[in-house]
Amino acid sequence: MFKYVKRYWYYALLAPIFMLGEVIMDLLQPNLLARIIDDGVLGLNNSGVGDINVVINIGLLMIGTVIVGAVSGILSGVFAQLCSQKFANDLRVDSFKRVMNLSFEQTYEFSVGSLITRITNDITQIQNFLGLLIRGFVRTLALFIGGIIFMLMLDISFGLILFCSMPIVIVFIYLFLKKARPQYKKLQENLDKLNSIMQEDVSGARVIKAYVKEKDEVNKFNKASKNLSKIQFFVLKLFSYMNPISNLILNFTIVAVIYVGGINIKLNSGITTGDIMAAITYTSMILNALLRMANLFQVFSRAQVSVARINAVLNCLPVISDGDFCEDTKIKGKIELRNVSFAYPDSPSVNVLENLNLVINPGETIGILGSTGSGKSSLVNLLPRFYDCTKGEVLIDDVNVKEYKLDKLRSKISIALQKSELFSTTIFENITWGREDATLGDVRKAASIAQASDFIEAKKDGYFTMIAEKGMSLSGGQKQRINIARCILKEASIIIFDDSTSALDLKTESLLYKELKKNYSDTTKIIITQRIASIKDANRIVVLDKGVIVGIGTHDELLEKCVIYQEIYNSQLKGGVVHE
Ligand SMILES: Nc1ncnc2c1ncn2[C@@H]1O[C@H](COP(=O)(O)OP(=O)(O)O)[C@@H](O)[C@H]1O
Ligand SMILES: [Mg+2]
Q1: Quick one: pLDDT at residue 442?
Q2: Which domains does the chain have, with CATH numbers?
């Protein structure tokens, strides 16, 4: 965390320097006031005759110190803001970068809601503390120490008063902080909860409406929100006691100052009325400084929790580490699995893929067929290293995927995921997501292969139609086709459709495959589906069952010798799905 502040050390240094300027000016004021009263008004050094010139001169000097103090204060504020804003910005960007590199499991572990809280609210807490620290800490400390010195310089007997009242204030502040401290962690955790509910419910709004669950969800939110308020209220209540109690102590101390001062005047020990006035101002300065220090500790406690939460993100090393192979390979589009087994990190004892061996040659069209949960998505997720296999090796173009630089590996593979993720921008930008230099002509061609051009061009703004968040303004099939167009446009040597044509009718789907075959004959194509009709023309079909390959071959070969394939075929024939 410190390295982020170090980058802006000059601001972090200038702010307290100017603050010191302001404090010195503040500290001079009571003393000058004492001189106006004693010399100018009461004329104590001139046998009781006041001097208007002294009043004017010192008055002007006081105005001067106020102006210098104010300018210093403003400059200190500006530098403190510059430092803390820049610090927070760097920290936010770095944390976000780290979040982008987390594996899916790591993201689930934090929860999306918590990551949002961390990158927004937690960083703001740290930023507030930093701003306060570089200005407030110096100010409070200087006012505190300076106040004591100046007061003792007035008369040593005032020290006795401070010696009595200060410990009371300190003990009292300590007790408050001790009670408040444990609340801050709870506060952030409750914020996490609130953000999680919010994020899940807003993105799942359709399901919530469909099941008429709005009331339940609002109740859930209300409960979480109330919990948050309760903790916030507790902390605020605690600190609202602090002011009146400290005022009480302050007033007692001032009475003591007047009392001790009065006795001293009576005894003629050299203390003047002006001295007493100055001592009163110093007393409140010192005690206020102590209270500010308490506030600083409070913000510190809160920031401390946030620092730990941000560090947890920053120190979370990516599970999938980069290799260093980034050369162009001669072979393009070859895939090989050697004795590959795979279990998800959260259930390491359950192999969802078991000892797979498979070679796919460049330009081949491979169908992967299997019921839901048979491991089809898990299998293709190993290729761009969304996950690493737990046993065996995955090779792309004869190089182990772990050796590649991730960018390089992922540039070879284009995958249209089962769930079409669209972004809230134009259709054009959504399609060019994987290849930003693509022209409108390229986009048109990809859309036409994906059987998407008709519905896109029928829209008023065509390719520049804005898509609402998560593609809510489109039908399932339209989203899938934009998703497929994006996948095709990337021009990778391996194209994977992970159940990404499920919402298309068979006729559209078969047109899509025909176009794909015509335009991308050299590209390796993997088509994952549950429908035999979608892949019966593939070069080979891989049949997966419970994570095991139970058959590889053409449609006809499999119909002949693969029992599971026959079963699937028969069940779909009955449903009238297979169109020969
Ligand atoms: N992120 C995950 N964590 C743990 N288990 C998972 C995860 N994703 C899928 N699985 C499990 O892995 C198995 C295979 O899932 P998947 O590859 O998605 O099947 P398919 O794509 O063939 O429908 C299923 O039993 C599923 O429950
Ligand atoms: Mg799947």
Answers
A1: 95
A2: 2-314 (1.20.1560.10), 335-415+491-574 (3.40.50.300)
